[in-house]
Amino acid sequence: MTDCKLIPARRVETEFVDRNSRFITNAAPAFSVAEAQAFIDCIRDKYPDASHHVPVYLIGHGSATIAHCSDDGEPAGTAGRPALAVLQGSGLGDIVVVITRYFGGTKLGTGGLVRAYSDSMRLVLEEMPLAKKVATTTIMFVVSYALFEPSKLMINNYDGLIIDQIFGADVTLTVRLVNKHLDSFKERMVNLTNGHVEFITIEERTNTIMPLRNKKR
């Protein structure tokens, strides 16, 4: 999976307390700067009375990544940049994170702030289920009841996702597949059904979130 572009599978929130200061971290997938900014605004609205909202995001992967962070009023270099450094070391992309702080009355000092914001990022990354960003195609096809279970096994073997299944005279399946598996899957289904299958393309996507099974960073 060296070419896999890892992203968050869904939104995650974590929290910890350091000397009475609460650090609430929210993370989510984001495929553009506009999506990231909308998420940041959403968190600010959710916690309007917080002391700080430190935003960090990475849009894209590799050399095409857009990176952004801000200290949001914390001493320069103590919040956004250390959190960004942890995120950049994770291998993830297309992710936005907001670390919200409620000041607890005790100053943490420069080193304490760096540790707190770094630990906040590490905590949310540890709890985050992972996904891959892939190009996918959703197809529809019909199989007999006798071939329903073998078809489900085939879909699973190709890491496909069953979107819908309709039971009538036969079974109509709507399945999302990663594009690199699509031709091979169709060929195997043709062999399984002795050529008695037709595929209808329902949708094509370039940025699909496909969760990794039983995998978490």
Q: What can you see in these coordinates?
A:
The chain has 217 residues and is an alpha+beta fold. The protein has two domains: 6-127, Impact, N-terminal domain (Ribosomal Protein S5, domain 2, 2-Layer Sandwich), CATH 3.30.230.30; 133-216, Alpha-Beta Plaits (2-Layer Sandwich), CATH 3.30.70. The protein is 30% helix and 40% strand. It has five helices and ten strands. It has helices spanning 33-46, 80-88, 109-127, 148-157, 179-192, and strands at 6-8, 12-18, 21-29, 52-59, 66-69, 95-102, 129-143, 161-167, 171-178, 200-216. The strands form two sheets. Strands 1, 7, 8, 9 and 10 form a five-stranded antiparallel sheet that branches. Strand 4 (52-59) and strand 5 (66-69) form a beta hairpin. Helix 2 packs parallel to helix 3 and helix 4 (148-157) packs antiparallel against helix 5 (179-192). The longest helix is centred in the middle third of the chain and has 19 residues, at 109-127. The radius of gyration is 22 Å and the shape is elongated. The model has no long low-confidence stretch (mean pLDDT 92).
